[in-house]
What we know:
Elements: H1 39-48, H2 50-58, H3 69-93, H4 99-134, H5 138-161, H6 163-168, H7 172-210, H8 221-240, H9 248-277, H10 281-284
Helix pairs in contact: 1-2, 2-7, 3-9, 4-5, 4-7, 4-8, 5-7, 8-9
Protein name: Integral membrane protein
Keywords: Membrane, Transmembrane, Transmembrane helix
Amino acid sequence: MPPQGYPGHPQNWGPYPPQPQGGGPQPPFPRPPRPLLTRGQRILKCVYNPFYAAQRAFRPSRPDAVEDLTVRKIQMWRTGLGIAAWLVLVMSYKPVDTAEGVETVAGDKFNQSWISTLVLVCAFPFVIALFAFAAQGALRGLYLRRSLKAFGAVAALVASMATFPLAVAPDPGTVGFRAAIGTPGMVVLITLCAWSLGFALYGIALCLMHVFRTADIHEVLPPILATLLVWVMAALDVVNDENADVPVLARIVFLLGAPVSVTVLSCWELYRLRKYHHLTVRQALGR
């Protein structure tokens, strides 16, 4: 049999990999990588896709950041189990047999997530400042420069939530503003509110998962801030007497379940960063 292939080229040359002899299952042909979007294309996609815009705003993007896929999977499982536990608690001890009850429960969950985000917004500047000023030498300025993206994420979330009072607040100032912009302005404002709704809801979830992209500052900050946030929220639940109609034992389990599980997960994440990536709090501070 004459050699196969194009004339003037070696055997098995061509755009496809050589096939093994004897048939059998063939390896899948690798897909070509997706072309990178230009800056204009990314901006345009952010305009018509609020979920893509939320990913760009709230996910860490430092090129040299360490990303542990095992920790990310555990975080997703923790989030799912937390939601499932909350649903079991609500279905067992709160009435959700009517549409009004479902709306109340959904509103409570959104308010809890929003309060968690606000607590994180108030807490993380102090933690970042303490972390940066505890670092030595040039690390201090480096961490302060990297923190601009985290503060930008905070500003983006607050700005997206600020559109709703302009559209629905009954105070004289916003009513006069809506009267001044007229019908065309109201169409633009309602469209902006719809875009902001998707951006804010997805952004809150990403903020809580990625802790306001503080991994862009250093990889050890997200587990530290997540632990701080969850214990502060537990303390607020105790002060506000949340779930007062739930039995004491179930309330204790529900109250301590989230802080303890998040603390264990955060300690394990710090352990993995130290063991597999040689990243520690002491090394991050240059000590």
